[in-house]
Write a structure and sequence with these properties.
With about 400 residues, this protein is of the alpha+beta class. Helix content is about 35%, strand content about 30%. Strands 2-3-7-6-5-8 form a six-stranded antiparallel beta barrel. Helix 2 crosses helix 3 and helix 6 runs parallel beside helix 7. The structure holds zinc ion (ZN).
């Protein structure tokens, strides 16, 4: 019976055990396998479960898709059909790269959270370690300077290469120990002790010495529920982040023909140049519009002007100027056939909304306004069609 089953957690004895043998206690048609002992760490305490395979006596590899803990039992979910039966012997193999990555990050989290607690008295009230990111939620506000100090001290703790110890204290002894707890513990209390840095109740596998964490890098911090959520990467993950960002910065600097340390200055210079050029375009457009307004066809009352690039203010200004001179539909379109057009249409006496209705059969029109002036956008329409719509307005 399942209620009598118990799985020995051999990842407690040796977090570095990558292969083990075990006896199947039960296995069902849905691929739920219970072993008498396992090195597979189940999903718990905010951390993902181990991945890997179970190998049958016949040499068949069964991928372990999920590992869950319920009471004293650890459940391995394997592919179906599952050929295992109670009493079979299996060999379990852990995906070591995945496990060690979790160990580096989880041990790093203890150092970081322990320092936040000892320096500021805040608790980690939300820990999340996924395949791609690790976040911690602290119940107090940490400034940029606080975080920089914590990151520095955390890495000093890595360089000191102090041991990471596990202890199972009795109830009496426990009362004398001050430790952090994240309510992730079932059964006998297990403490992870990093001398002079942190003591915390925890059920997860850890590295033997802090040096194995490699590096603890703060990636981001944000205000969260009155406290601070931080994102941190340790070990190989931190290296991957650095490699990716370093490649990006190097490539971008090369693209702008400068060095990485000159890149931000180069970008600021380009922003200034864009700002200046925008001003030049605006003033050239003003002159263009003046020119257009000075040479309007005398025989037409319905006027339509199309330009590649006008600001919203220039479009409104031009329509107002046109309406002073002409009594018909005065339209200004800015854009191109490929990107679509923004438009402003006005009429002194009449209903500008009719112009929108006349455009609607020819493209995707968005917009609205009042009888005197409408604005919006139209896509999927050619310059020729817009001019034809204007020609179709009966003369006043
Ligand atoms: Zn922990």
């Amino acid at each position: 019976m399942e209620s009598m089953e118990k799985t020995e957690k051999i990842y407690y004895e040796d977090a570095y055990l990558q292969e083990f043998t075990a006896t199947v206690l039960s296995a069902d048609a849905d691929g739920r396998v219970v072993l008498d002992r396992t090195a597979f760490f189940p999903e718990s305490g905010g951390q993902t479960c181990d991945r890997g395979v179970l190998v049958t006596e016949g040499g068949e590899l069964l991928t372990v898709k999920d590992v869950q803990i319920t009471g004293e039992v650890i459940l391995h979910l394997v592919e179906t059909p599952c050929p295992l039966h109670a009493g079979d012997r299996v060999t379990g193999r852990i995906d070591w790269a995945h496990r060690f990555d979790n160990m580096q990050n989880h041990s790093g989290e203890h150092i970081f959270s322990g320092l936040v607690h000892s320096l500021h008295g805040y608790n980690n009230v939300g820990f999340h370690l996924s395949e791609t990111e690790m976040t911690m939620d602290f119940d107090g506000v940490l400034t940029e300077a606080d975080l920089k100090e914590i990151e520095g001290k955390a890495n000093e703790a890595v360089w000191k290469n102090v041991p990471v110890l596990q202890r199972f204290p009795g109830a009496e002894e426990l009362e004398t120990i001050s430790y952090r707890s994240k309510k992730e513990v079932e059964g006998a209390l297990r403490l992870i002790v990093i001398p002079d840095i942190d003591i915390c109740a925890c059920c997860a596998p850890h590295v033997r010495h802090t040096g194995e964490i490699g590096v603890i890098k703060l990636l981001s911090a944000q205000n969260y529920k009155g406290g601070t959520r931080v994102s941190v990467a340790c070990g190989s993950r931190a290296l991957a982040v650095f490699a990716e960002e370093h490649a990006f910065v190097t490539e971008t600097a090369l693209h702008f023909s400068t060095s990485a340390d000159q890149l931000s200055g180069r970008i600021a210079g380009l922003e200034e140049e864009i700002f200046r050029l925008k001003g030049t375009v605006l003033s050239l457009n003003d002159r263009l519009i003046e020119e257009r307004l000075a040479h309007l066809p005398g025989d037409r009352e319905h006027i339509c002007i199309l330009e590649a690039d006008l600001s919203a203010e220039q479009m409104r200004h031009t329509v107002n100027a046109l309406m002073e001179k002409k009594g018909g539909y005065c339209g200004v379109f800015a854009g191109s056939e490929e990107t679509g057009y923004r438009f402003v249409i006005g009429i002194r006496e009449g209903d500008a909304r009719i112009a929108i209705e006349n455009l609607r059969p020819h493209g995707q029109v968005k917009g609205g306004g009042n009888a005197q002036m409408v604005q919006g956008s139209v896509t999927g329409v050619s310059e020729k069609t817009i001019r034809e719509v204007w020609d179709s307005f009966t003369s006043i």
